Amino acid sequence: MEPDNRDQGEFEPLDSCDERILAVINELHRRDDPVPYDLNERVHFVLELEAALDAKVASVYRPAELTLVRGEAELTVNQGDPASITFDCETVTVMVTPRPSALEEMRLDGWIGPEGTYGVELRSPQGVRRVSTDASGRFVLEGLPNNEMFQLVIRPDEALQRDGLPAVVVTPAVRL
Questions:
Q1: What's the superkingdom here (predicted)?
Q2: Phi, psi of 64 (to 5 degrees)
Q3: Which domains are assigned to the chain?
Q4: What is the mean predicted confidence (pLDDT) over 154-169?
Q5: How far is CA 121 from CA 32, 82, 92, 103, in A?
Q6: Is residue 102 over pLDDT 50?
Q7: Bridge partners of residue 56, in order along the sequence
Q8: For the whole prediction, is pTM greater than 0.85?
Q9: What is the rounded CA–CA span in Å between residue 157 and residue 165?
Q10: Using CA atoms, how far apart are residues 101 and 89, in angstroms rounded to an integer?
């Protein structure tokens, strides 16, 4: 025997059967695809940055793997340190390598190209840390909390800006 659905329309109020179905769907989402615990933190982080800066945004660069073939043997060669993250925009490339430095702390080694002096700002929920690069574009940030979201704000010096670099480059937020 089939249920009588003729009087039920799509705009009818929810009944107890609808509520049970929605409760099951809600539980599946809560269990299998929960809202990230730090979602609010991430949203505030991005909104603050957008409000404070009018900047070029770099994207995460993922090079294709090179594959060498000789005879029937294949060898895959990855470019760079597997822990490294490279950010790229039209005129600036930033590569960072996070490494554990102490219990629950990270060290971030970074290189910016083209060579020159840059101001580097690391923004995280813990606050802002600032360093300058050496003349080759290298920088180090130590004592960073492990497993935190961070974003870099890069400010080339005036000479590099005269050479065509933007005043500010911002990386996407990533987790250490």
A1: Bacteria
A2: -70, 150
A3: 39-175 (2.60.40)
A4: 89
A5: 36, 24, 15, 23
A6: yes
A7: 169
A8: no
A9: 9
A10: 29
